[in-house]
Design a protein that fits this description.
Length: 519
């Protein structure tokens, strides 16, 4: 598709985006001029010459850096998916911000920073256990989710057709649709895992830009930060924080599946949400993946039925245990080749749930994150639809809390993340799909406090992590006992030798014949 046709398409997408919003594409850049030139470097403020805030030292318009290093994994196509080398199929020049400035025009601050010059640290936003929220905090969180579900997104629309069919049958009518703030959150997750569309009924099911590789932790971290910022703006509360659900109960029940929290089961149909819950009326989007593939189309944001969970289908399954978290946090390697779902001794793969955290090899393993999704069943069971369930938010917040704890314990260097040969989208410098402006995996490979938030959580301490003073004492005592034991053993051996008539070594008589000579 030519840049001109892209310009005709995207110029219809709507009004301008307010400064600082990190969208798939900022509206200010969907003009004919920007799209033909493939340049998204808007001015900051009213002065046209202040491109990327350059006159204030905030940034410059530069060439987009997209990762070109080799990838591994099952995706073997080239130049057939618009997510390859993201986002260069759309823009090859964007604002590169300096210091703590951020955003498509460098008019915002990075997460965790504030002030006119983005040089003031913001107070950390504290993410709490959902069970420890005050009634007021709980209502604010649940109300914000419901408001986001029922409020049309003021800044973004979604594309509803494959990239070669976005202008419709006649090439004159852009195939776009509005969606709510929360449904846009769902759509982003769907878009990162959707199949490559090669023709009617010919999906290529080999690319996943947010799972089955190192980017699992950073992609979902950024995804949550984006939603958290959207909800802060929606509620007008800059200290608003997403809570987490500590799912490591080891039980066969979902303790957040209550009408006071995220919805109990409906008595007459346990797969639906209780009518006493605000979530009983939530319609889901992006659920009909096979239908989209057959019609060579994308999710268009239409509601496709009600949110479902399926406790009847759990077959006695239990949620992860406290010990599972402890074992996962004991793994010292962030990831290991082939950086995929078959990686072993890998913290990331154990956390994602493709490998057992206790290092036992099992081809059919399902643990931690994956196990929780499967336990919830219903809408949560498949990646393309899972984000529809509001439990997704608190589930992934706790997954991120485990990641943050591991980062604090081991303080890995950036080199712990592979430069190349991870699956597509998972190399260290790959721009996460479909976020814009470009942001790499490496930028979010840090502790949470560097990004402006923290967790009020106590993680399990492994046996290897006893307090340093206690460890030193135990080591010293062990060495002392070993030394005493060695002295006793030597004294005993000397006593036996003297009893048997052994002479000291210096009094022994040696034969001068060589080993190779006859005795």
């Amino acid at each position: 598709m030519s840049p001109l046709r892209w310009g005709l398409l995207l110029s219809c997408l709507g009004c301008a985006v307010p400064p600082g919003v990190w969208a798939q594409f900022p509206r200010v850049c969907v003009t004919m001029r920007s799209l033909v030139s493939q340049e998204c470097c808007p001015p900051l403020g009213a002065e046209p010459a202040n491109v990327c805030g350059s006159r204030e030292g905030r940034g410059q318009c530069t060439e987009v850096q997209a990762d070109t290093r080799r990838w591994s994994g099952p995706y073997a196509l080239r130049n057939l998916d618009d997510r390859e080398r993201w986002p260069r199929k759309f823009f090859n020049r964007t604002c590169k911000c300096t210091g703590n400035f951020a955003g498509y025009n460098c008019g915002d601050c990075k997460f965790g920073w504030t002030g006119p010059n983005c040089d003031q640290k913001k107070p950390l936003v504290v993410r709490k256990n959902i069970h420890s929220l005050t009634p007021q905090e709980r209502e604010q969180f649940l109300g914000a989710l419901d408001l986001a579900k029922n409020t049309t997104h003021p800044d973004y629309v979604i594309t509803t057709q494959h990239w070669l069919g976005l202008l419709g049958p006649n090439g004159t009518q852009p195939q776009v649709a509005n969606c709510s703030i929360y449904d846009f959150f769902v759509w982003l997750h769907y878009y990162s895992v959707r199949d490559t569309l090669l023709g009617p009924g010919r999906p290529y099911k080999a690319a996943d830009f947010s799972h089955q590789g190192p980017a699992f932790v950073t992609w979902h971290r950024y995804h949550l930060l984006w939603l958290e910022r959207d909800l802060q703006r929606l509620t007008g509360n800059e200290s608003f924080a997403l809570p987490y659900w500590n799912f490591a109960t080891g039980r066969n029940e979902c303790d957040v599946c209550t009408d006071q929290l995220l919805g109990a089961a409906r008595p007459d149909d346990p797969t639906l949400i209780s009518q006493n819950s605000r979530f009983s009326s939530w319609g889901i989007v992006c659920n009909s993946l096979d239908d989209y593939n057959q019609r060579v189309t994308l999710c268009n944001g239409s509601r496709e039925g009600l949110l479902r969970r399926n406790p009847v289908g759990r077959n006695g399954e239990e949620l992860p245990s406290f010990k599972d978290i402890q074992d996962c946090l004991s793994l010292k390697e962030f990831d290991n080749p082939p950086f995929f779902q078959n990686s072993t001794f890998s913290f990331r793969n154990a956390l994602e749930g493709f490998d057992k955290a206790n290092r036992t090899l099992d081809a059919h393993v399902m643990g931690l994150h994956n196990l929780v999704h499967a336990f919830l069943n219903g809408t949560s069971a498949l990646p393309h639809s899972a984000a529809n369930d509001p439990i997704f938010v608190v589930l992934h917040a706790f997954t991120d809390a485990i990641f943050d704890e591991w980062m604090k314990r081991f303080n890995p260097s950036a080199d712990a993340w592979p430069w190349e040969l991870a699956p597509i989208g998972h190399n260290r410098m790959y721009n996460m799909v479909p976020f814009f402006p470009p942001v790499t995996n490496e930028e979010f490979f840090s502790t949470a406090d560097q990004l402006g938030y923290s967790y009020a959580v106590d993680m399990p301490v492994s046996v290897e992590e006893t307090p340093s003073g206690t460890t030193a004492f135990l080591v010293a005592m062990g060495m002392l006992v070993a030394l005493v034991g060695l002295l006793v053993l030597l004294a005993f051996l000397q006593y036996r030798r003297l009893r048997r008539g052994y002479k000291p070594l210096m009094e022994a008589q040696f034969n001068n014949k060589r080993y190779t000579e006859d005795a």
